[in-house]
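Re: folding output
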Amino acid sequence: MSYPRITDRQSALPGAAPVGMPQGSDAADLMPVATALAELNEGELCGLIEATNMIDATKNVPQIVPGLLAWIGHACDWELNRRACVDSPLQSPDAAISPEEYAASIVAMMTLRARFDQDAGRNAGAVVALFDAMIRALTGGERRH
């Protein structure tokens, strides 16, 4: 799945735009993701997009969770677009991740979170918070347990 990206960030307003409400039936699960995305700076968002694209493009890495990578990239794109005043819905993980891939995606997300928290230390607080929110969205909070 491909998402349009804003390449010219010049049009973004200088101040942070208010966090938009995700649309659809998953809005309650996605609001913490939207809030966590708003806490990341542009470099962190672009870094996450680049990392998901690099993993996706690397042929030596088995593509166990391509839908998860697509969803992480989409969420970061969505936030950059939101800051540039481009309004579009934040898609739920269901839009990118197949049912067969869900369990592996949850494990992969938890592994990424633990690894990033361990390797980056205190500087990773906002990204770890994003991963926590994404894990809650993937698991459906209390509803899927």
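--- second protein (sequence, then structure) ---
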Amino acid sequence: MGTDQLTWFNQLPALAAQQTLLDCCSAPGWAEQMTAGRPYSSTNDAIKLSGAIVAALSPADLAGALAGHPRIGERHDTSQDDSDKHRSTAACWSAQEQAGVDADDTRTGQDLAEANLEYEQRFGHIYLVCASGRTGTELLALLRGRLQNDPVDEWQVVRTELQKINVLRLRQLLAGLP
């Protein structure tokens, strides 16, 4: 299955490959460079290149990547029609990744909303974290801890978290792994 998906991706026209990659990471520069890096001999080769690209993303591209993610504890609407496939696929992945944030836990949800706003006021962008496999309580504790970072260090943490998310999504896209 994974080999078929990787072959399919390697054979996509460049524009279609870029659009597909924007589902993983909404940073246009990242998608362009990942497309230019084809063909990939393995999913791991794509992941390795992704890490190098994320490490060198400009602040504008990082901001573009952040724009494709909902706040922790919030969900994009996944009931949209097929005309907005990119947003729908990205929203589905975000919902899967944030599955540990219990929508019925009102107190944690309120605390996350307040902490998200505090984070955004401090750093000027959303709190990005690889939420996969983590509970709302864990994500809230991580957020509160990151509020202690200075802005330069926090951008490095954002890069690291973005790459973790990209790894998960590239594995789903190119290898069919959950």
